[in-house]
Design goal:
The chain has ten helices and 14 strands. With 433 residues, the chain is of the alpha+beta class. The chain starts with 8 loop residues before the first strand and ends with a helix. Keywords: Cytoplasm, Guanine-nucleotide releasing factor, SH3 domain.
């Protein structure tokens, strides 16, 4: 059942979704997705611009748009203060800003307390109970299910104590909590292992929930720990969501922190640090998923020739259908996959859904991309629209590629630029390491 047009639902991507499946829709963290089908709790269907497809529900969060609410509040404040003397208006604004900062500080500390309790419930209510039943839960199964959640709980408890010590309980707006985030920024990297393991944890739990014995065990754990009635997967998703929210909380805090407040430089530094942590974790997660999916995808391609993709590539950057014009001027429909360092093109297998036959590849380390004006190309003696050429300078080999529209062409040209930038970034990071 698809969502009615007037009841639009939007979701924001928490993580990059890398996919080789033409039925799925890839996206990057921060992308806004219009969700059109969420009947299945694990896989939703959505759209970004003119692209659409399935994607894992755990990779996004439903977005609550507060823009209209903020606009209405602003209008009300303006109406109420129009006839108030300016000196009083400034006084009210100053008090409101202090109160707003106090509210954000309280929200941060309360959220952290709730989160710490949540982790305690999972560790004591599930992990410790599972360890008492080694015949059901050998250690490797526990590691797969819970990852390093115990390590995260230990860190979160210490972090909460440090945060609480910085709270000014009588005047919360004077609290200086920015340095607590700055001092612990490197320690937040432990979330990377947890986030990378999370898909495996979900798969493991799905298998276990098929067995009545395990279902009863998990429900007993929840009841004994007096936890809310949601499946264990929901509890285990919380750390993944939490690490994505810190920089949003800090951005809100910075908004209500005056420049002359002693916490201002620390909050500003903390915001940048937590943004970097979120980006780092997302990058590691994306790389790991990408490598796994590239290896699996290559095995599914018929008549593969030459080196393995992973010998030189580690991520899929873009993909889609294009027309490849051969030297005789004939148009061939091919599916292109742009990886770092190479462009692979395949022919769709008409007998097998979503299957491909390998046709060739282009080494992008020795190539130049040449956009073409619409019209006749003298080299190939054909008239083309939305086209560009790929020139392998090492072998002096040319490829003429045609997209279905100018917008698709522009996305491909941007993707080629991204590919070169990714290669450059990887080289610089390797040198630093």
């Amino acid at each position: 059942q698809f969502i009615e047009e007037e009841n639009l639902i939007f979701a924001e991507a928490l993580w990059d979704h890398v996919t080789m499946d033409t039925d799925e829709m890839g996206f990057r963290a921060g992308d806004l997705i219009r969700v059109t089908d969420l009947v299945d709790k694990d896989w939703w269907f959505g759209m970004i611009d003119d692209r659409q497809g399935w994607f894992p529900a755990t990779f996004v969060r439903l977005r609550v748009n507060q823009a209209e609410v903020e606009e209405e509040l602003t209008m009300l404040i303006q109406e109420e203060t129009e006839n108030v003397p300016k000196i009083r208006h400034h006084g009210v604004s100053y008090i409101d800003k202090n109160q707003a900062r106090a509210n954000v500080v309280n929200e941060i500390i309360n959220a952290e307390r709730e989160y710490s309790k949540h982790l305690k419930d999972v560790v004591e209510g599930y992990v410790k109970q599972a360890r008492k039943r080694p015949e059901m839960f050998p250690e490797e199964k526990i590691e797969t299910m819970f990852g390093n959640i115990e390590e995260i709980y230990t860190f979160a408890s210490k972090f909460l104590c440090q945060l609480e010590s910085k709270i000014n309980t009588t005047s919360p707006h004077l609290s200086e909590i920015g340095s607590t985030f700055q001092d612990n920024s490197k320690r937040f990297e432990i979330y990377s292992d947890y986030c990378n393991n999370h898909p495996s944890a979900c798969d493991e739990l799905k298998d276990l929930y098929r067995n009545k014995r395990y279902r009863h065990f998990f429900e007993a754990c929840r009841l004994l720990q007096d936890m809310i009635e949601i499946p264990l997967e929901g509890f285990l998703l919380t750390p993944v969501q939490k690490i994505c929210k810190y920089h949003l909380q800090l951005a809100e805090l910075l908004k209500y922190t005056p420049i002359d407040h002693p916490d201002y430089p620390h909050v500003k530094g903390a915001l940048e640090a937590m943004k970097k942590i979120a980006t780092l974790i997302n990058e590691r997660k994306r790389k790991m998923e990408s490598i796994e999916k590239i290896a699996t995808w290559q095995m599914s391609v018929d008549t593969w020739e030459g080196d393995d993709l992973l010998d030189v590539s580690s991520e899929l950057i873009y993909s889609g259908e294009l027309h490849k014009i051969n030297s005789s001027g004939w148009s061939q429909e091919r599916y292109f996959f742009l990886f770092d360092h190479q462009l692979v093109y395949c022919k769709k297998d008409i007998l097998k859904k979503n299957s491909f036959c390998y046709k060739g590849r282009v080494n992008l380390d020795h190539c130049e991309i040449i956009p073409l004006e619409d019209g006749k190309d003298t080299q190939y003696n054909v008239t083309v629209r939305h086209a560009w050429k790929v020139h392998n300078t090492q072998r002096d080999k040319w490829y003429l590629l045609v997209a279905k529209s100018d917008s698709v062409k522009q996305r491909w040209l941007k993707a080629f630029q991204d590919e070169r930038q990714r290669v450059k970034d990887d080289q610089e990071n390797s040198e630093l390491a």
